Amino acid sequence: MALSFGLLRRSGRIGSLILRSRFHHSDALSKETPIGFVGLGNMGGHMAKNLIRSGYSLIVHDLNADSVADLKNSGASSASSPADVAQQTSCIITMLPQSDHVKAVYTGDGGIFKSVKDGTLLIDSSTIEPGVSKQMAQLAKEKGADFFDAPVSGGVGAARDAKLTFMVGGGEDHFPVVKDLLALMGKSVVHCGPNGTGQAAKICNNMLLGISMIGTAEAMNLGVRLGLDPKLLASIVNTSSGRCWSSDTYNPCPGVMEGVPSSNNYDGGFGAALMRKDLGLAQSAASDLNTTTPLGKHALELYTNMCSSDLAKKDFSVVYKYLQEQ
Ligand code: NAD
Known about the structure:
The chain is α/β, with parallel strands linked by helices. The chain folds into 2 domains: about 5-195, Rossmann fold (3-Layer(aba) Sandwich), CATH 3.40.50.720; about 200-325, N-(1-d-carboxylethyl)-l-norvaline Dehydrogenase, domain 2 (Orthogonal Bundle), CATH 1.10.1040.10. About 45% of the residues lie in helices and about 10% in strands. The chain has 15 helices and 9 strands. The chain has a 6-stranded parallel β-sheet, with helices on both faces. Helix 3 (about 45-55) links the parallel strand 1 and strand 2. Helix 10 (about 195-225) crosses helix 13 (about 270-290) and helix 10 (about 195-225) packs across helix 14 (about 295-305). The longest helix is centred in the middle third of the chain and has 29 residues, at about 195-225. The N and C termini lie far apart (about 60 Å). The model is unreliable at about 1-30 (pLDDT under 50). The structure holds nicotinamide-adenine-dinucleotide. Nicotinamide-adenine-dinucleotide binds near residues 39, 41, 44, 96 and 97.
């Protein structure tokens, strides 16, 4: 990689040079050979637009016609199926809700593996079971393609502002190429190890986040009932040993902080249903590996109960309100 990433990026030739040196058949990422993007939802739509902003042409696909139309307005062209995307590109990013969607997009009738070209770079940024990522990587290998799991941390705002953190699992040899590409959509790209380890890092982080959010909500709720002013309690916790991200950056008690979902009727942010999903992935992995995660288990039960109400649509810090109302 003789030329710097910044220079290549400015010249609009990132990837065509780098990828040629790494992938036998790939001249992806030049304007002539677009990047494929499947899954243009809350996250993927912004990520795809950031690639367009960086000067790359995109071929997109989604089941939702409105999302495709939105990307077409931003300059993308569309494909009729994931297989159609794979036919036209040698670099594809997917951003889908769950494991089953990823399996459908890669292995389904009109799936990527139906027409993927030898040497294609496949990056899946969905949060899914590590085992499914490993399966997709194996199937990709059989087709001569390279698969990476690259789930993200950071919500819709970080996707919009290209400030995501990517946790990447896959072959070390090709990681520099993947890193340069993902850096167009994020602020940090970390190689975690072989396929599946990106997902492992993501679900461990989010299990801890769910637990710490419940803990912060419990402590704030008890403190308020004991007669403490919530702002005062938060300021004490945040300069004491109870401090954590949920208490000092994303406090779940309304009115303690400005600009967080708890002070906006728990709207925006990271949905409780998504937290429930990630806690479920962590429990499924823990049970497969006979690993004791008692607080993760309780966190999943609590979020599952909470998500059976309208609160599922609110930010995950709404657990404060849920506990308050119990
Ligand atoms: P979303 O539901 O908004 O978007 C998913 C998109 O995939 C939709 O547009 C849907 O139509 C499309 N899709 C589903 N099945 C498809 C198929 N077979 N073919 C083509 N398109 C299909 O989801 P999101 O919020 O963008 O999240 C995507 C992933 O990112 C999830 O795995 C989620 O856990 C993870 N994530 C989300 C956030 C967040 O704050 N939203 C944060 C971090 C990670």
